[in-house]
Design a protein that fits this description.
The protein is mainly beta. Helices cover 11% and strands 31% of the residues. The structure holds flavin mononucleotide.
């Protein structure tokens, strides 16, 4: 089949999210100017540059507050900082719980039974239950043009200025123990995938030396 998204897909469900898989899940903690904590997952998320390390996530239309912004976006624009907490198999339920649509002063980290721990360089707390954290400074936001009259998205770019890795996830070789880390990724519909020791494979890149 071929379809132009502006004309519809004709399938029972929109296939788009199933065509870009798996997506890493940005689990974004932020605070507002008064220090209220917010936590939410974003699967329109990725690393986009190596040096300096840079990540992005894309926030759609907020349903609750008058400004129609999601709390993460509003907080990050206000304070210029956020943390990405890496999502793993062990935190999958809490991650999902933290996606609940709530008023801006609701702390989803507490709601999901998670433990806040201080960051080193930024104000938003880290999720203790996550073994890896990126402390980020806002670089810029980009409002995507809304050509279909649908949801309006704002992309948030952040420079990663500090990275925490729990030591037990670093192998004697100096590489990350990805099997032990057991990260999860987002697929289409309500589906997820997991990275395990069995699903990792290695290929040498032609002419490339690390
Ligand atoms: C796995 C997962 C991925 C999500 N990805 C996104 C996303 O990329 N962009 C988005 O706007 N909402 C996404 N959501 C929905 C947000 O998490 C949800 O709207 C949340 O309430 C936003 O919280 P906030 O207003 O506190 O920022 C996702 C939800 C889940 C469970």
């Amino acid at each position: 089949m071929f379809y132009e998204p502006k004309d519809g897909h004709g399938l029972s469900k929109n296939p788009f999210n199933s065509l870009v898989v798996p997506r890493p899940i940005g689990w974004i903690s932020s605070v507002d100017g008064a220090g209220n904590v917010n936590l939410a997952p974003y699967s329109f998320f990725n690393a986009v540059a190596y040096n300096p390390p840079t990540v992005m996530f894309s926030a759609g239309h907020g349903q609750v507050e008058d400004d129609s912004k999601k709390d993460s976006l509003r907080n990050i624009v206000e304070t210029g900082e956020f943390v990405h907490n890496v999502t793993t198999w062990d935190t999958r339920e809490a991650m999902n719980e933290s996606s609940a649509t709530t008023a801006k002063d609701v702390d989803e980290m507490a709601m999901a039974g998670l433990t806040p721990i201080p960051s080193t360089l930024v104000k938003p707390p880290r999720v203790k239950e996550a073994p890896i954290h990126f402390e980020c400074k806002l670089l810029q936001t980009v409002d995507l043009p809304n050509t279909s009259g649908g949801n309006t998205y704002t992309v948030v770019f952040g420079e990663v200025i500090g990275i925490h890795i729990e030591d037990e996830f670093i192998l004697p070789s100096g590489q990350i123990d990805i099997a032990k880390l057991h990260p999860i990724g987002r697929m289409g519909y309500q589906d997820y995938t997991e990275v395990t020791g069995e699903t990792v494979f290695t290929m040498d890149r032609p002419g490339f030396r690390e």
